[in-house]
Design brief:
By secondary structure, the protein is mostly helical. The chain is about 65% helix and about 0% strand. The chain is built from 15 helices and no strands. Helix 4 packs across helix 7, helix 5 packs across helix 10 and helix 7 runs antiparallel to helix 8. Its main location: membrane.
């Protein structure tokens, strides 16, 4: 299988920037353009979302002071004033996850259609869309890495909901309540309660895509995902290709994409990514992760350990379980 050609953007991303731009040879064809333009708008916003999440500091200090001094109205007001705009950001991130899921669904529709005979042809001839698919996965894993290391997110939202509830009981005007009504607050709360909320959104979205598109053989989706995983693995483990990655961010990009497609595959394939019949070389993929500098891929290994569906199945090879311990 001509992996380097099928996914050639993976070794041409080395630009020295955080978000690799679209390479010249992955310009969308006329057939791809409509979907590409829709997804491009979302991906442009994705960069700002990551910047905002990285800069998210939380209102821990204000909340602590308010809790320690429950009768001090000034401190209560200060905590509320600090939390309300942060909740606006958390709402924005959650709403972005819905847009991302819709984009993923559009890309899956294009990359699994019966236009071409196999997934390799799709990836070779629709490189612009394959690149966008990879960028969505890169964003998703990066978002979840940042979220996992920021406990302020859940603390801020919990405080917001508790305070709002108390204000309602006391019939106090709750400025900012219009920002997040009760139903939306429940959905946002569930979203952030997950260790990897964006990945969960995409996994659910991929499962939904497969169940809603019965006319598309499930193999079209799973083969597309397994091919992308294999391409990333080959790019990372082959010295000839790896030597072209002068920028470490490109390596991170490929690693996140590889882990992302493995997790999606594990959700939609009837027996998952870890079974003997899986088209993904899981031992090879885990070895690639383990070969990275210590501590650099802990989040990705944890994603495989804790967010996959079939790792703990009896059918999973014991060696794979030991590798991920």
């Amino acid at each position: 299988m001509a992996y380097p050609q099928a996914f050639s953007f993976t070794h041409r991303l080395d630009t020295g920037t955080n978000a690799p731009p679209l390479p010249a040879d992955a310009t969308p064809t006329e057939a791809e353009r409509e979907v590409w333009l829709q997804v491009d708008v979302v991906l442009k916003d994705a960069r700002g979302i990551l910047d905002e999440l990285q800069a998210y500091k939380g209102a821990g200090q204000e909340i602590r002071e308010a809790i320690q001094n429950p009768n001090d109205d000034v401190l209560q007001d200060q905590a509320w004033a600090a939390v309300v705009p942060l909740v606006g950001k958390l709402k924005k991130f959650y709403q972005f996850s819905q847009r991302l899921e819709a984009s993923l669904s559009s890309l899956l529709g294009a990359l699994t259609s019966v236009t071409y005979e196999d997934p390799t042809q799709h990836l070779e001839r629709e490189q612009a869309l394959a690149k966008q698919f990879a960028e969505i996965l890169h964003f998703t894993l990066r978002f979840d890495e940042l979220k996992m290391t920021n406990p302020a997110i859940q603390n801020d939202f919990s405080y917001y909901r508790r305070t709002l509830s108390r204000m309602r009981i006391n019939n106090l005007p709750a400025e900012g309540e219009n920002e997040v009504n009760n139903e939306l607050a429940n959905r946002i709360s569930l979203f952030y309660a997950d260790a990897t909320p964006m990945l969960k959104t995409l996994s659910d979205g991929t499962t939904k895509f497969v169940s809603e598109n019965k006319n598309v053989p499930i193999e079209n989706t799973t083969d597309c995902l397994s091919t992308m995983a294999s391409v990333c693995k080959v790019m990372l483990e082959t010295p000839e290709y790896r030597s072209r990655f002068t920028n470490e961010e490109t390596v991170s990009f490929c690693l996140r994409v590889m882990v992302g497609v493995i997790i999606l595959y594990d959700y939609v394939h009837p027996v998952g990514a870890f079974a003997k019949s899986s088209k993904i070389d899981m031992k090879g993929c885990i070895k690639v992760l383990k070969d990275q500098p210590p501590g650099s891929v802990d989040g990705l290994l944890n994603a495989l350990r804790y967010t996959t569906k079939h790792l703990n199945d009896e059918s999973t090879n014991k060696t794979i379980k030991i590798m991920l311990q």
